[in-house]
Amino acid sequence: MGHAMKLVILDRDGTIGDQIGAQGDSSSDWQPLPGALQAIARLNHGGWHVVIVSNEGGLGRGVYEMAKVNDLQARMYKMLATVGARVDAMFFCPHAPDEGCHCRKPGTGLFEQIRERFGVELKGTPAVGDSLDDAIAAAAAGCVVHLVLTGGGGQYRECALPAAFPPGVVVHEDLAAFAQHLVAREDLVGAATPS
Q1: Which of 30, 32, 130, 161 could serve as 165's disulfide partner, Cβ 3.0–4.6 Å?
Q2: Nearest alpha carbon to residue 154 among 175, 173, 133, 176
Q3: What is the DSSP string of the chain?
Q4: Handedness of CA 31, 29, 19, 144 (dihedral sign)
Q5: Least confident window among 24-28, 126-130, 149-153, 187-191
Q6: Which residues are catalytic?
Q7: pLDDT in tens, 136-178
Q8: Residues 87-146: tens digit of each pLDDT
C-alpha cells in the first residue's frame, strides 16, 4: 500500500440513491440516482477507495430491521458490480435521532471509525453529501466538504448556501459531476508534477 490511501467518503441516501422513506420502504425499492454508480466506478478507476457513511435512524426508531439494511447494501453492491464499481466499506449509525449518540451525523463518530479502520488521517479527504448534517460532520472531521444538489441538496439549487454551512463547501450538480471534478483535478495535478 502506498504512503497515502486515496479515500473518498460518500453519504448514501440522496447522494448515491433515493432517500429511504421514513416508513422504511423495502430495500427492493431502492434505486441509485442517475449516473451515481458510474461515478463510483470512475472514482475507482482513478485509484480512489470509496467508503459510505449513513445515518440509519429508522433502525433506532424500530421502523425497519437490520436485515433491511443488509438487503439494501447487498442490492447496492450487486448494482455497483454490474458497472465495474466497488465500495470498500459502509459505516452507519444505528441510533434514533434522539438517542444523543456520537456517531449520528452531524456527529463525527462514523468518520472516526473510518480513521481507525483504515489508519488514515482524514484531513483533506473529500467527503460528499446532500445535507447540512453531512457537511458539518465532514468539516468537523477535517474533510474537504462537497455538497451535491440531489436528494436534500436540491433545495439549495437556486440559492446561496445558508450561513450554517461550513466555509469552503464545493457544490456539484450530482455525484457524477463530483467524480468528474475530482478525477480532472487529479489529472491536472499529475500533469503539473515533473516526472
Answers
A1: 161
A2: 173
A3: --SS--EEEEE-BTTTBPPPPTT---GGG--BPTTHHHHHHHHHHTT-EEEEEEE-HHHHTTSS-HHHHHHHHHHHHHHHHHTT---SEEEEE-S-GGG--SSSTTSSHHHHHHHHHHT---TT-EEEESSHHHHHHHHHTTPEEEEESSGGGGGGTTSPPPTTSPTTPEEESSHHHHHHHHHHHHHHHHHHS--
A4: negative
A5: 24-28
A6: 11, 13
A7: 999 999 999 999 999 999 999 998 899 999 999 999 999 999 9
A8: 999 999 999 999 999 999 999 999 999 999 999 999 999 999 999 999 999 999 999 999
Nearest CA-CA partner of 87 in 186, 19, 15: 15
